[in-house]
Amino acid sequence: MRFRLTPRETSFYDMFSASADNIVTGSKLLMELLGADSASRVEIAERMRAAEHAGDDATHAIFHQLNSSFITPFDREDIYNLASSLDDIMDFMEEAVDLVVLYQVQELPKGVEQQIEVLARAAELTAEAMPGLRTMDNLTEYWIEVNRLENQADQIHRKLLAQLFNGKYDAMEVLKLKQIVDVLEEAADAFEHVANTVETIAVKES
Q1: For 85-113, what is each residue's pLDDT tens digit?
Q2: Secondary structure of the chain as H, E, C letters
Q3: What crossing angle do the helices spanning 112-129 and 171-205 adopt, rounded to 10°?
Q4: Confidence at residue 41, expressed as pLDDT on a 0 to 100 scale
Q5: What domain of life does the native source organism fall in (predicted)?
Q6: Maximal C-alpha separation, the chain
Q7: Which helix (H) or strand (E) covers residue 72, if one does?
Q8: C-alpha angle 113/55/187, rounded to 5°?
Q9: What pLDDT band is residue 168 in, cutting at 50, 70 and 90?
Q10: Mean pLDDT of 71-83
């Protein structure tokens, strides 16, 4: 860790942790969605929307702190990228739930559960990693594992696409389901972006 003579604004660490904890909440709502009936899905979507708004508030708080801080714990660009990528995750998860409700999807294809399980695990790892930004210790396993999970998510996504185009679904249903599984894949990509940003920060601070 580099020795610094100047004080640094430390509230960023707490705000990043709060943002990541909110993502865990979102991932749990995704899990709830899997076995829910239509009425329950509407209620889950409302709670997910509230979680997404809380995520927006957390992101705006980070940006406000960034704009008002003379000294930051690490590069301003990295703070911006990390906050934005965390926000993207919540946006994609909320979009997936909203699409399921709007499209009135009766049954999600096999494989979506695996997608969501990967996202839930990535959410847990991300929330566990954020406090480590204070010291930059023991973060290597985090970004390695998230990258492994993203590769796993890619494989699941490809299998889901093959399943959707195997002739079992009509064309309109394929369009609806493909959009949902694509958005879930984008959430997995956003988790990888967070991990890559953390790796960049750790390398610069080492």
Answers
A1: 999 999 999 999 999 999 999 889 989 99
A2: CCCCCCCCCCHHHHHHHHHHHHHHHHHHHHHHHHCCCHHHHHHHHHHHHHHHHHHHHHHHHHHHHHHHCCCCCCCHHHHHHHHHHHHHHHHHHHHHHHHHHHCCCCCCCCCHHHHHHHHHHHHHHHHHHHHHHHCCCCCHHHHHHHHHHHHHHHHHHHHHHHHHCCCCCCHHHHHHHHHHHHHHHHHHHHHHHHHHHHHHHHHHHC
A3: 20
A4: 95
A5: Bacteria
A6: 65
A7: none
A8: 35
A9: confident
A10: 93
Single pTM value for the model: 0.92
Tokens, residue 25: 């909440």
The amino acid sitting at 88 is D
